[in-house]
């Protein structure tokens, strides 16, 4: 830097002010000039409004350098940090020193909001910081600039998303306790199945809500950038949905108590709270991350890594889940049914490792039976409602689904749908012809119909092969209406399906129409003969 150089060739002087979440300031300045009449410490005190502790304020190789930090430059109250910067004294000093230009950068941590009350500043917002920059000349007359950042009540509105599942569970609980003309077992199966869907949806909803809240930035703000912010961020992601799930499980106790005929809602436990999600939600989140990385961000390596983590998480969490549930005392004893089920598994090409029986009053099953991780769970309600040949028929149908991985294919199709919708809607040929208000929602609404059509095809395939495996078509036809009565939601959908979406199975099934006439089936043995209670209300 020669003093003889013209003002135009002299590099611009620089000033950086870094604010932290406690209101402390770190100021660095480099003035490319030797004509300063005094050190900068006093004028920097006026700029930041605080006293610097042992600042470096000296000439180095013909340029003037200043570096210092001070506490209390800005005031913090709760989750808000605010203060003022005054650049006019510094500009006056640089004008006297004939400094042609000063580039100023003001940076503070990324938070829920940032308010910078001055015009002409460029803004750069990253995941970790918000940066304002502007160039001043000797003719500039900067005013005092108020600055505020942090969090206000509006930034925590995403937390209200967690009230939605609680409200839904309260409404379901109210409806379940008022359904006096339906078997408590059926009420519980329907309630618990929907409960699992709502809890899974809660986790997915909170993923989006926590992104809006930005838990990482909030953790860094609370801990002032400490290395311990990562565990706090994980806490923000995990604790809210876990608390919601525990609250909703406790609220479900009165519904479960009806199954066992008890008046006190004392049967729910932490095993109920985490029956549905541990082996599904975390692999699902990793699966979504992997598909989004590949389909939306072209990050192949990251996508493959997320998919591998999804598979490993599913295997590990399924193993933990089975051991936490303590099912050793629920193994189905040796007998004709046990041998017949293992035989059906071999014929269907599915390995059945173990068979468990759980009473409906236990409350963990959301359906008469469940096949998870090659383990079969049977409810005592299934044994009472269906004959053994009918039980074998519906299990053979489930084994076909498992062998052909119908549910995994359906889940993959659902996960792939949103990235494909995004990609398709942004194709130049589509984007240039249709507005987003048409092409986006149109594809979103088409996707459920596609998934429904796919699943109905899987159902027809499974029923056809199950009839061949058991060699008893009539048993399957008589079992399906009885099985349908255990799910009120599915029963309602079947009635809607009968009216608007005929599935065309009559060509394949001689008695196929009878499968959907569930309301005409006689009530199953779920209530006393003199009780007005029925398995499913007509």
Please tell me about this protein's structure.
With about 550 residues, the chain is of the alpha+beta class. Among the domains are: about 15-150, Immunoglobulin-like, CATH 2.60.40; about 155-275, no CATH class. The protein has helices at about 40-50, 90-95, 165-180, 185-215, 215-225, 230-250, 255-260, 270-275, 280-295, 300-325, 335-350, 380-385, 390-405, 405-425, 430, 435-470, 475-485, 490-500, 510-515; strands spanning about 15-20, 25-30, 55-60, 65-70, 75, 80-85, 100-110, 115, 120-125, 130-135, 145-150, 355-360, 370, 375-380. The strands form three sheets. A seven-stranded mixed sheet has the order 3-4-2-1-7-10-9. The protein has a four-stranded antiparallel sheet with strand order 5-6-11-8. A hairpin with a 3-residue loop joins strand 9 and strand 10 (about 130-135). Helix 11 runs parallel beside helix 13. It is elongated, with a radius of gyration of 33 Å. The relative contact order is 0.07. Residues about 1-10 and about 505-538 have low confidence and may be disordered.
Number of strands: 14
Q: Which stretches are low in confidence, meaning pLDDT under 50 for 5 or more residues running?
A: 1-8, 504-538
Number of helices: 19
The whole-number mean of residue pLDDT values reads: 81
Termini gap? 92 Å
CATH topology of the domain at 13-151: Immunoglobulin-like
CATH class of the domain at 13-151: Mainly Beta
Please tell me how large the radius of gyration is. 33 Å
SS-based class: alpha+beta
Helical content stands at: 40-55%
Which percent band covers the strand fraction?
A: 5-15%
Order of strands across the biggest sheet? 3-4-2-1-7-10-9
For the biggest sheet, the summary is: 7 strands, mixed
CATH architecture of the domain at 13-151: Sandwich
Overall shape: it is elongated
